[in-house]
Amino acid sequence: MTPHTPHGIRTLHDGWTLRAGAGPVPADIAQAVVAATVPGSVHTDLLAAGLIPDPYLDENERRVSWVGQADWEYSTRFEWAPDGEDRHDLVFEGLDTVATVSLNGRVIASTRNQHRRYRVAVDEHLRAGTNELTVHFASPVKYADAQSLELGYRPHVNSHPYNAIRKSACNFGWDWGLDVATSGIWKPVSLHSWSGARLESVRPTATVDGVVNGSAGMVTVEVQIERADADGGPVTIAGSIGAPGFGPVADLGQAVAGTGATGAGPGSAGATGSVAVAAGQTTATLSIPVAEVALWWPRGFGEQPLYPLEVTVATSQVTDLWASRLGFRTVAVELEPDVDGTSFRFVVNGQPIWARGANWIPDDAFLHRVDRPRYARRLDQAEFANINLLRVWGGGVFESDDFFDLCDERGILTWQDFLFACAGYSEEEPLRGEVEAEVRDNVERLMPHASLVLWNGNNENIWGYQEWGWEKRLQGKTWGLGYYLDLLPRLVTELDPSRAYTPGSPWSGDPDIFANAVEHGSVHLWEHWNREDYPGYRDVNPRFVAEFGWQGPASWSTITRAISDDPLTPESPGMLLHQKASDGNDKLTDGLVAHLPLPDHTEDWHWAMSLTQATAIAVGISYWRSLAPKNMGTVVWQLNDCWPVTSWAAVDGDGTAKPLLYALKHVYADQLLTIQPHDGVLVAAVINDSAVAWTETLVLTRHGFDGSERASVSIEVDVPARSTRVVPIPAAVATPTNEAGELLAATLGTERAHWFFAEYRDSELAAAELSSHVTDTPTGCAVTVTAHTLVRDLTLLVDKVDASAVVSDMLVTLLPGETVTFEVTSARPLDAAELTSLRVLRTANQLVADWAR
Questions:
Q1: pTM of the complete model
Q2: Range(s) of the domain holding residue 742
């Protein structure tokens, strides 16, 4: 949770106005004075005033490109009277980005970094009565262009030199993101009034002596204080740890006092400690032993007890307080040479974790719009998909405490990239000083979070230098390697020594080994999407896949809300603007036609591409899970989107789940049964990532498409917890007599897997014959579907009926005579005929059988 303090804090969010400065500003806006929302941004203020169109819609992105090329000024007035405090500081939690701050006409700060907090002493500038505060923002586009000349060209992807400014890289556009270079006071601003001493930084590290509940724990807190009087007298730093809580705690003070939501168990008595700081001194180390602790575990491995920690500084009375929550656990990221290359695996409390991951990008192009409830909704979807790890990608931001709080509570492991992505970066001043300042700021801020298990130096930059032709373009200039191999690991060791650090993603574990070597460490696999095909995932045996992905369109309701093209086609103007990938539509088509025919109707195209995206990712993950423990994780690109766009996301820019999210739910399940080719033969891989043994009878059956049994065998399997067993399928079952008209089915308890010998388009898949009925439920309705023929990938695209409705499952394959029920959650009655229409109740059969005719 966000640290809080008892001294006087006054938010300054009211009365702000916005006006344009220099730049290509339309005449009707140049003279306007607009009411401004703080926290906020120029774009959203102009949008609220009706002065610009919504850049998320149609081709409006182009119509507002001038905003990022203009200067802007925010101003407000506030009243102040002397209050007897020794010091008064203006605190800006986030300024985006090139800002000059003035108080009563005097410049008090010049900032050049979106990723830092700023505290400015203003005692000599404050006035009794009315005070005027202004923040002038220079054009981020022009500043980045000028700095790229000043610092010297360094390679980067996309069209702007985002690597010359410390600002979210994807804010200048990405292959899934719109170009809306923002300015604004994007985080809170406040006036702090204090006396005596305040807590300048608090860095707690929770360690544990063992990896079982009841082990002894220790919290070591490194504290730095600031004194109103540099020669001030002695102070006392005190810390207290309350009983562990499970889930959200509304008031950390109550939790420390033992009156908040807590759980029984080790550590319930709490613990305290204190240390004296001599006159004039500003640093101290506080140690608080905890006799018995309950361990924090990733989701699926145990509970997530979080201990409230409160730290105070006092003279004759408490002058400042800081509070957060901690989890006791051990964590390591192991990159160890072995006979197969170099491993990459997360180990928590001594337990290896198969990472069922997804990459996380900013959830909105306008970052201030992402609040705690929105984070919670997105993490609900991550949990639905059985995700246990999120990687915060380095082209975005250091994520908020709200994000990490929620991951702490849910047991979702997180890794945070430092903010370098797909580019070379100057290692000289002034950039170097900004990098160090932002790293210190954010490591100190985020280190209390139990879910955070890895700091990572960059995204693809070392790989880029090695393989993308950067060396000759750089002509000997620095490009960031000194950050990744020296500055960043030194800062992590100094500030957060208990956490792992890797220099980059991908990373082989050794600077002398190619960064994206498949057999070493973490890899990014993009050749299959860009040039090859997704069945090729089964030809790659990586140790850990940190990025791979397949594009698909946004949900139908999102597309039709955001794009008004008439006719709406994959290549109509609005659709093309909402496809940012290079040759994206061609790659979608190339990735489809080897498996399914290319439809001519837009809704059929939408379904075909959505199905292909889900299928491609399921192929990769299910195969790599079958390689465990040689392979120890996948981090799919990507969980979420920041606007309505065709992209690799499982959840689109409106927050609607695409079929891919349901594919992830299936292949990231604790217990997965899958049929895979291993060394030229088919096997049934039984993957048991649960806490209990999986002992069942495995039934392997080859069927005709009419449901008839052609061959069958039963095998007893006993798979211990957290392990994988690979069962060869006898040739009599695995060898079809008619590849186009037969399939394999594997059943183990309630789990089912299928293997088709021929691609969709080359098979004898006939039109689906279905019967369905809809019944009302307290939360919506239930749609029960019975198959009378083989039905592949039965999916209810319920957003076409109600954009806010949610369905329990998708992508269900049924043999003749089998039945499935979809639970639909909706706040309004839904029309049964519409729900079961062929445009909503979709199958792969529609795409194949209709084309065959």
A1: 0.95
A2: 672-762
